[in-house]
Amino acid sequence: xxTTLADTIWTELAGVDxxxxxxDAGGVPTRSLRAGAGEPVIFLHGTSGHLEAFMRNVAKHAxxxxxxxxxxxxxxxxxxxxxxxxxxxxxxxxxxxxxxxxIAKAHIVGESLGGWVGARTAIDEPGRIASLQLLCxxxxxxxPAVMERIRNSxxxxxxxxxxxxxxxxxxxxxxxxADATEELVAVRHAIYHxxxxxxxxxxxxxxxxxxTRLRNILRPDDLARIDVPTLIVWGRNNPFGEVPxxxxxxxxxxxxxxxxxxECGHWPQHEQAEKYNQLSLDFIGRNRIG
Length: 290
Hints:
8 strands, eight-stranded mixed sheet, 14 helices, hydrolase activity, hydrolase, alpha/beta, Rossmann fold
């Protein structure tokens, strides 16, 4: 899709009352964009990502719900404590954020790593999750080639101050290069080159180490324990996981729904925002907390 003025982050939020603030989540300063009113919907991004991954979704969801898009632990402009970011750490940070916001129960939308964290939270703390969306979610396989691709493309873009490497990392996510807009590239490049982000990159990439990944992986018996309403959305051109991976999630999570987007990579919520937004709103609407 061609990038136009209407595709920028600020025009996506035009007319939307929102707050972009820092929340103390269990002692971790956490960047949070909040908008709308009603039942809480929490957007969680992927590895080395940030809340801007959901800018094409905030306004549509905020028309009906209280949206929270956050930078996860060690990511974006959120605090970067010096320890490896394994899945229980992310889960605990998410729960601390919910507690800080006085949220007893929320709808969780997790893309890639965010889906892994959302699924783990639904397994361990099902009472806190009203519904779960897994958008090209990670965490169910350990593919060395994919892990190397994520690790090397991210580390190279972070440790080399060349915007072309950040652009290549962003384009890796998309079926159409145009969806990796220059604005998104600039946002990610600035995040990648914070001194504390550079210094913390090995903690952030620890799940791309085989031993660490296997310690955190979601196995079929783990997925079988998810008993909250679950929607799985997958891109047919996802560079980090093929459709059979989504099929297996669907089989293992009882009662889950699976939707495959054609001509779509790793960011279905962004690449096909109009289609995704309606799908998401319909799903959340069928699974209201009240």
